[in-house]
Amino acid sequence: MIASHIMNCLLAQKMIVWSWGFNSPIYLRDGLQFNVQGFIFQGVVQIKYNEGTDLFYINFIKNKKILDVFLNVSIDMLIDTLDCYIEKVEDYGKRVRDEYSLL
């Protein structure tokens, strides 16, 4: 099942995925949907598989409206693509320290 494959890919990089506030995964017939609360994006992420191209497309949804779509994402670029859209701000280290009052 493709949803399990996507979930395994995400769980291979747990620290990054948990930093997004990943929660409430839903297995879809052709992919996976989950909620995030990142520094940049808070909302729903849908990852869907296109069998014809053997690539994924990603929908970023907020208030039931698709805000952005990334097409033709390979499995090896999935985490980086998601992280850049959801969490990875330019001053990430400082932002994390400030958010969690770390020295």
Main β-sheet: number of strands, strand sense, barrel status? 5 strands, antiparallel
CATH topology: TATA-Binding Protein
Give the radius of gyration.
Answer: 14 Å
Q: Which blocks of ≥5 consecutive residues have pLDDT under 50?
A: none
Q: In CATH, what is the class?
A: Alpha Beta
N-to-C SSE series? Answer: HHEEEEEHH
Q: CA-to-CA gap between the ends?
A: 44 Å
Structural notes for this entry:
By secondary structure, the chain is an alpha+beta fold. The protein has a single domain (2-99), classed as TATA-Binding Protein. Helix content is 32%, strand content 38%. It contains 4 helices and 5 strands, in the order ααβββββαα. It has helices spanning 2-11, 14-19, 78-86, 92-99; strands spanning 23-28, 31-37, 42-50, 55-62, 65-73. A 5-stranded antiparallel β-sheet has the order 1-2-3-4-5, covered by helices on one side. β1 (23-28) and β2 form a beta hairpin. The longest helix is centred in the first third of the chain and has 10 residues, at 2-11. The radius of gyration is 14 Å and the shape is globular. It starts with a helix and ends with a helix.
